[in-house]
Amino acid sequence: MRIIRYREGASFKLAALTDAEEIFSLEEPDFISLVQRAAQDGISVTEKVKRIIESSQALNKEIHQLDLIVPLEAPEIWAAGVTYMRSKEARNDEAADGDRQGPTYYDKVYDADRPELFMKSTAARTAGPGGEVCLRSDSSWQVPEPELGLVLDRNGSILGYTIGNDMSCRDIEGENPLYLPQAKIWRQSCSIGPAIRLADTVEDPYDLQISCRIYRGGQKVVDETASTSQLKRGLGELVAYLAKDNILFDGTVLLTGTCIVPPGQFTLEPGDRIEIDITGIGTLTNIAVPA
Ligand code: DO4
Ligand code: MG
């Protein structure tokens, strides 16, 4: 069971999307209100949505006919880094300066107890499905980072899963890791969506396929697939570090790191269409534009 939001005229609508791709209207204005309503009723969100579906009719619409928007206005989006071997190798490549001796910071953080966690985005900087993600004007090596996103409540419980794109400037981070905030955060440097898959409807979050395709002028120029089974850390471990002595909000999103990095010197260009799929969640599509 998935939750989506879409624009209809001047208003935003919340809806449930079943595995059979049927769409049912939900009365609550947003995902967190739905979670709170289910808690007031003493039932899970999935049970709440099932009961609504049983007593209502599916919309006479298909998903591609809806003007989808972010499935929730996440007050904060955080991200974990170097949680997959592929990410560690890519960071070591971009930071290579020829006279490296001993383990890098990336080697160390991959094996350390404490994960890398950083603030990635806010609601105002986050694009939704079909929206535009921006390319920084002072970077010439930019890539999407397809990531599994955890939708959390204020206590750190995982309410659901979404797809995140942690847009990144490999040249800026590679020049100096202290530039990380600039390599990661700018206008529309993050996107989430197209849906939130309710947590208790995911059989095994460590067995999800993540794919990324990039199209340029109608040609597919990147096509990569990986799996959350390659994740080095537990999801609960990442959430526990994020929550430590911190404030989480209902609807905080935690991106769990990338397992896909486009090969070599590949860089995004204006007009590129980025598609990211995760099993059971859907496809997050965005167009790259100049910032
Ligand atoms: O070390 C910098 C960021 C790593 C990251 O974003 C990732 O592994 O996904
Ligand atoms: Mg990342």
The percent of residues in helical segments reads 10-25%
User: Structural class, from secondary structure content?
Assistant: alpha+beta
* Ligands bound, unique: 2,5-dioxopentanoic acid, magnesium ion
Number of helices: 7
User: Low-confidence parts lasting 5 or more residues at pLDDT below 50?
Assistant: none
Number of domains: 2
CATH class of the largest domain reads Alpha Beta
CA-based shape: globular
Protein name: 2-dehydro-3-deoxy-D-arabinonate dehydratase
InterPro entries: FAH (IPR051121), Fumarylacetoacetase-like_C (IPR011234), Fumarylacetoacetase_C_sf (IPR036663)
Family: Belongs to the FAH family.
EC number: 4.2.1.141
Structural commentary:
The chain is of the alpha+beta class and about 290 residues long. The protein has two domains: about 1-70; about 75-290, Fumarylacetoacetase-like, C-terminal domain (Fumarylacetoacetate hydrolase, domain 2). It is about 20% helix and about 35% strand. The chain contains seven helices and 18 strands. It has helices spanning about 30-40, 45-55, 85-95, 105-110, 170-175, 180-185, 235-245, and strands spanning about 1-10, 10-15, 25, 65-70, 75-80, 115-120, 125, 130-135, 140-145, 145-150, 160-165, 170, 190-200, 210-215, 220-225, 255-260, 275-280, 280-290. A hairpin with a 5-residue loop joins strand 10 (about 145-150) and strand 11. The model has no long low-confidence stretch (mean pLDDT about 95). The protein binds 2,5-dioxopentanoic acid and magnesium ion (MG). 2,5-dioxopentanoic acid binds near residues 83, 145, 166 and 257.
